[in-house]
Amino acid sequence: MNRVQILILVLLVPLVASCVSPTRSEGLTIEDQVVGELTISLAFSSTPTVNRSERANIILVDAQGQFIDNALVSLIVSGPDGDAMPVSVGQANQGGYTSEEIVFPAAGMWTLVVTASLDGDEYDATFTRNVVN
Q1: Is residue 57 a contact partner of residue 12, using CB atoms and an 8 Å limit?
Q2: Backbone phi, then psi, for 65, in 5-degree steps?
Q3: What is the pTM of this model?
Q4: Which of 13, 25, 97, 128 could form a disulfide with 58 if both were Cys (CB 3.0 to 4.6 A apart)?
Q5: How far is residue 124's CA from residue 2's CA, in Å, rounded to a whole number?
Q6: What was the pLDDT predicted at 94?
Q7: How confident is the prediction for the chain on average, in pLDDT?
Q8: Dist CA 79 CA 74 (whole Å)
Q9: How many CA atoms lie within 13 A of 123 on its CB side?
Q10: pLDDT digit string (tens) for 11-57?
Q11: Whole-number percent of the chain with pLDDT over 90
Q12: How far lies 39's CA from each of 21, 58, 122, in Å?
Protein backbone atom coordinates (compact mmCIF):
# COMPACT_ATOMS: atom_id res chain seq x y z
CA MET A 1 0.00 0.00 0.00
CA ASN A 2 1.49 3.33 -1.01
CA ARG A 3 1.54 6.59 0.94
CA VAL A 4 -1.48 8.07 -0.86
CA GLN A 5 -3.59 4.95 -0.23
CA ILE A 6 -2.71 4.94 3.47
CA LEU A 7 -3.50 8.64 3.75
CA ILE A 8 -6.80 8.13 1.97
CA LEU A 9 -7.76 5.28 4.28
CA VAL A 10 -6.89 7.30 7.39
CA LEU A 11 -9.00 10.25 6.27
CA LEU A 12 -11.78 8.21 4.70
CA VAL A 13 -12.69 6.17 7.79
CA PRO A 14 -14.36 9.08 9.65
CA LEU A 15 -16.03 10.27 6.44
CA VAL A 16 -17.45 6.85 5.67
CA ALA A 17 -18.48 6.26 9.27
CA SER A 18 -20.53 9.43 9.21
CA CYS A 19 -22.23 8.58 5.91
CA VAL A 20 -22.96 4.87 6.18
CA SER A 21 -25.76 3.43 8.26
CA PRO A 22 -24.36 1.56 11.28
CA THR A 23 -26.71 -1.36 10.56
CA ARG A 24 -24.80 -2.36 7.45
CA SER A 25 -22.68 -5.46 7.79
CA GLU A 26 -21.00 -5.49 4.37
CA GLY A 27 -17.81 -3.60 3.73
CA LEU A 28 -16.68 -0.88 1.43
CA THR A 29 -14.46 -1.21 -1.57
CA ILE A 30 -12.00 1.61 -2.14
CA GLU A 31 -10.68 2.02 -5.65
CA ASP A 32 -8.11 4.53 -6.92
CA GLN A 33 -7.63 5.80 -10.44
CA VAL A 34 -4.82 8.09 -11.51
CA VAL A 35 -6.06 10.55 -14.14
CA GLY A 36 -3.32 12.89 -15.31
CA GLU A 37 -1.82 14.35 -12.12
CA LEU A 38 -4.92 13.63 -10.04
CA THR A 39 -5.86 10.53 -8.05
CA ILE A 40 -9.60 9.96 -7.79
CA SER A 41 -10.59 7.47 -5.09
CA LEU A 42 -14.06 6.01 -4.68
CA ALA A 43 -15.29 4.30 -1.51
CA PHE A 44 -18.54 2.49 -2.17
CA SER A 45 -20.42 -0.53 -0.91
CA SER A 46 -18.80 -3.80 -1.92
CA THR A 47 -22.26 -5.30 -2.43
CA PRO A 48 -24.80 -2.65 -3.40
CA THR A 49 -28.35 -3.98 -3.34
CA VAL A 50 -31.46 -3.13 -5.34
CA ASN A 51 -33.73 -0.56 -3.66
CA ARG A 52 -31.32 0.14 -0.81
CA SER A 53 -29.81 3.57 -0.28
CA GLU A 54 -26.08 3.93 -0.91
CA ARG A 55 -23.65 6.86 -0.95
CA ALA A 56 -20.47 7.37 -2.93
CA ASN A 57 -17.51 8.84 -1.05
CA ILE A 58 -14.86 10.44 -3.24
CA ILE A 59 -11.36 11.67 -2.37
CA LEU A 60 -9.20 13.81 -4.66
CA VAL A 61 -5.42 13.98 -4.25
CA ASP A 62 -2.90 15.80 -6.44
CA ALA A 63 0.47 14.45 -7.62
CA GLN A 64 2.19 15.88 -4.51
CA GLY A 65 -0.18 13.97 -2.20
CA GLN A 66 -2.18 17.07 -1.25
CA PHE A 67 -5.95 16.85 -0.89
CA ILE A 68 -7.96 18.89 -3.36
CA ASP A 69 -10.95 20.65 -1.90
CA ASN A 70 -11.70 23.28 -4.52
CA ALA A 71 -12.89 21.01 -7.34
CA LEU A 72 -16.37 20.74 -8.76
CA VAL A 73 -17.21 17.04 -8.56
CA SER A 74 -20.04 15.32 -10.39
CA LEU A 75 -21.23 11.74 -10.56
CA ILE A 76 -23.17 9.98 -13.32
CA VAL A 77 -24.54 6.51 -12.57
CA SER A 78 -25.54 4.31 -15.53
CA GLY A 79 -27.43 1.05 -15.27
CA PRO A 80 -27.34 -2.14 -17.30
CA ASP A 81 -30.01 -0.71 -19.61
CA GLY A 82 -27.77 2.26 -20.42
CA ASP A 83 -29.97 4.85 -18.72
CA ALA A 84 -27.86 7.46 -16.92
CA MET A 85 -28.80 9.41 -13.83
CA PRO A 86 -26.86 12.38 -12.46
CA VAL A 87 -26.21 12.28 -8.72
CA SER A 88 -25.49 15.41 -6.67
CA VAL A 89 -22.12 15.53 -4.93
CA GLY A 90 -21.09 17.92 -2.18
CA GLN A 91 -17.90 18.54 -0.27
CA ALA A 92 -17.73 16.63 3.01
CA ASN A 93 -14.28 17.56 4.36
CA GLN A 94 -10.81 18.46 3.12
CA GLY A 95 -10.40 16.62 -0.16
CA GLY A 96 -13.53 14.57 0.50
CA TYR A 97 -16.83 14.63 -1.34
CA THR A 98 -20.03 12.68 -0.67
CA SER A 99 -22.92 11.95 -3.00
CA GLU A 100 -26.58 12.21 -2.22
CA GLU A 101 -28.27 8.87 -1.66
CA ILE A 102 -28.26 6.51 -4.62
CA VAL A 103 -30.98 3.89 -4.95
CA PHE A 104 -30.40 1.30 -7.66
CA PRO A 105 -33.71 0.22 -9.22
CA ALA A 106 -32.36 -2.92 -10.90
CA ALA A 107 -29.74 -5.62 -10.49
CA GLY A 108 -26.77 -5.91 -12.82
CA MET A 109 -23.54 -4.13 -13.65
CA TRP A 110 -23.67 -0.38 -12.99
CA THR A 111 -21.12 2.25 -14.02
CA LEU A 112 -20.19 5.22 -11.84
CA VAL A 113 -18.36 8.03 -13.64
CA VAL A 114 -16.75 10.61 -11.36
CA THR A 115 -15.77 13.89 -13.00
CA ALA A 116 -13.57 16.38 -11.16
CA SER A 117 -13.38 19.87 -12.71
CA LEU A 118 -10.36 21.82 -11.52
CA ASP A 119 -8.81 24.98 -12.94
CA GLY A 120 -10.60 24.55 -16.26
CA ASP A 121 -9.57 20.91 -16.69
CA GLU A 122 -11.80 17.85 -16.32
CA TYR A 123 -10.66 14.50 -14.95
CA ASP A 124 -12.91 11.44 -15.42
CA ALA A 125 -12.66 8.15 -13.58
CA THR A 126 -14.96 5.21 -14.32
CA PHE A 127 -15.83 2.58 -11.72
CA THR A 128 -18.20 -0.39 -11.88
CA ARG A 129 -20.29 -2.20 -9.28
CA ASN A 130 -22.45 -5.29 -9.57
CA VAL A 131 -25.80 -4.50 -7.92
CA VAL A 132 -27.52 -7.57 -6.46
CA ASN A 133 -31.12 -8.35 -5.51
Answers
A1: yes
A2: 85, 10
A3: 0.81
A4: 97
A5: 22
A6: 80
A7: 86
A8: 17
A9: 21
A10: 554 444 444 333 333 589 999 999 999 999 999 999 999 999 999 99
A11: 76
A12: 27, 10, 13
Number of Cα atoms under 13 Å in the Cβ half of residue 130: 1
Question: Residue 41 carries which DSSP code?
Answer: E
Does residue 56 contact residue 75 with C-beta atoms inside 8 Å? yes
Q: Residue 93's pLDDT is what?
A: 82
Extended beta strands in the chain, E state = 28-35, 38-45, 53-54, 57-62, 72-78, 84-87, 89-93, 96-99, 102-103, 108-118, 121-131
3-131 folds as Immunoglobulin-like (2.60.40)
Residue 8: C-alpha distances to residues 2, 48, 75, 86, 118 (Å): 10, 22, 19, 25, 20
